[in-house]
Amino acid sequence: MHVLALVCTLKPSPAKSSSDLIAAQLLELFAERGATGETVRVVDHDVRPGVEADMGDGDAWPGIRRKIHEADILLVATPTWMGHMSSVAQRVLERLDAELSEMDDEGRPLTFGKVAVAAAVGNEDGAHKIIADLFQALNDTGFSIPAQGGTYWNGEAMQGGDYIDLDETPKAVAAANATLVRNAVHLARLLDSVHYPAS
């Protein structure tokens, strides 16, 4: 089983990122359950705006898309900006729109049978809306969402500070992370053994 983490921070590598940290923590938990993991920091790649699988002219999305199709589980990790997901995460969703027109031999979207989970971090409120928006879009494009498949951390309102500044992961976040991973692996295994019906 393989997990692809799309980290949607606005900070190019090698800058430290709270979104990258929570993705790394989740990938460690996935590894404990036998799932290999890979991280793509999307902002490091020239992902062009658009809703096609390949926007041409050096577009980096086709390579990322291949990784998505090779994975069993997709993790989208995003910071919170002004109460919303990052513009990078929004672009990922826009590019995933192309999956609606890509079908397998039995008329199912190529993303059917893949699991998606989400993580949001920030020093302001908005995580519930962000995860709801991510889940709606990911489900629309064919991914399956496990029970309690989202995790988040919000700092105290108007106080500053970031997830990467914490001395340890809060117990509630650690518990949510563990549940997300446990349920995502369970659902991915089920979908691997029993496929969705053909259209």
From TrEMBL:
A Pfam family: FMN_red
Domain of life from the UniProt record: Bacteria
NADPH-dependent FMN reductase-like domain ranges (all copies): 1-147
InterPro entries: Flavoprotein-like_sf (IPR029039), FMN_Rdtase-like_dom (IPR005025)
Name under which the protein is recorded: NAD(P)H-dependent oxidoreductase
